[in-house]
Amino acid sequence: MASKKARRIRRARRQPWWQQISGWVWALSLGVVLMVGGLIAAAAGETEKSIDPTSPELVAQGQVIFTETCAACHGPNGEGDIGSPLNGSAHAWHHMDNQLRSVIRDGIPNTQMVGHKDHLTDQEIDAVISFIKTWWTPERQRMQRTGRHPMG
Ligand code: HEC
To answer: Which one, 73, 95, 114, 135, has the greatest CB density within 10 A?
Structure first.
């Protein structure tokens, strides 16, 4: 019995070091791969969820809604009038999608920007935002999407 144990130990000792730790290395690599994969998936999910300004259908739908509902105050090209410019010259692009959604849905208290939730569905509000985004440079679109931009 004792000799059996001794043989097992001897056999284990004979294994080169890389064979002995290979299990750990393998597990560690798997962990790293899973982590990186998870991060990539999270990043992809983030862009997927952000309102897409490159979908022709969404943008076209948004343009109609903007012209009918928003242009009177924000200008036909978003250049601003009674309402702030939305064309990228002011700071509308500093708000992330959810902030823009809630401004359009619920309005800004004590201003002429009233909420539009009574006559626009969530889908229509997203369409308007996608149209507004087409005025922004790719750089501003990226900063708006990630929420990383110089303050101002
Ligand atoms: C009756 C005029 C009026 C209409 C119609 C209107 N807005 Fe506004 N909007 C304003 C005003 C005024 C402000 C600025 C409020 C303030 O003082 O903060 C504003 C602000 C905003 C902001 C925030 C801009 C920023 O830089 O923070 C967004 C986004 C916006 N409007 C989108 C829309 C959209 C989209 C529509 C159409 C569905 C719309 N508005 C219709 C008057 C209007």
So the answer is: 135
User: Mutate which of 51, 69, 74 to test ligand 1's pocket (most atoms within 8 Å of Cβ)?
Assistant: 74
| Model-wide pTM > 0.85 | no
**Beta carbon of 62 within 6 Å of any ligand 1 atom:** no
Q: What percent of the chain has pLDDT over 70?
A: 85
Ligand 1: centre distance to CA 62 (Å): 15
Superfamily for 56-146? Cytochrome c-like domain (1.10.760.10)
CA distance 74 to 115: 15
Is 58's C-beta closer than 6 angstroms to any atom of ligand 1?
no
Is the confidence at residue 46, as pLDDT, over 60? Answer: no
Helices (H), the chain: 2-14, 17-49, 56-65, 71-74, 97-106, 122-133, 138-146
* 84 within ligand 1 shell (Cβ under 6 A): yes
